[in-house]
Amino acid sequence: MLNGDDMRRHPRVKHIYLASYDIYGSLGEVAESYIGRTLDVSPGGVRLETAKPLPLLSRLSLSLAIGEKIIEVEGEVVNLSKKKSGMIETGLEFINITPEKSKLLHELFAG
To answer: Closest by alpha carbon to 17, among 52, 92, 69?
Structure first.
C-alpha cells in the first residue's frame, strides 16, 4: 500500500480530469456508477476526489478523460482520506493494465 509521497513509485501529474467509475457487485455486475475528478495521475495509479468513500481494496473500472482521449482502466482502492470539505480523496492503483494503455499513460508524462 502506498501512503506517502516518499513511497510513490511513479511521478505524479497534478491535473483535474473528468473520471467516471463503476463499482462491481459480488456477481460481477455494475452495482453503482459515479462521476468524480482526478487530483493527480501517474502511470501506476490515480488519486480521485469522490463524494462517497469507496471500500478499501475494492476494484472498479475507471474512464479517464485526458485531453481528447478516454482511457479505460481498472483500479484497486489502496488508500482513503477525508478532506476538510467533506470530500474523500481516494488513491487507486491501476491493475490489469494493457501495454497499450500503459504506453498512453507514460506518453502523458513524457510530453
So the answer is: 69
30-39: b or e for each residue (b if 16 or more CB lie within 10 Å)?
eeeeeebebb
User: What single letter denotes the amino acid at residue 10?
Assistant: H
Using CA atoms, how far apart are residues 108 and 111, in angstroms rounded to an integer? 6
Nearest to 9 by CA among 59, 43, 33: 43
* 12-21, 34-43, 100-109: the lowest-pLDDT one: 12-21
pLDDT at 31: 80
Q: What is the pTM of this model?
A: 0.72
Residue extents of the structural domains in the chain: 13-110
pLDDT in tens, 34-90: 778 888 888 888 899 988 888 898 888 888 877 777 888 999 999 999 999 999 999
Cβ proximity of 71 and 60 under 8 Å: no
- Distance CA(34)–CA(93), nearest Å, equals 18
What CATH class does 13-110 carry? Answer: mainly beta
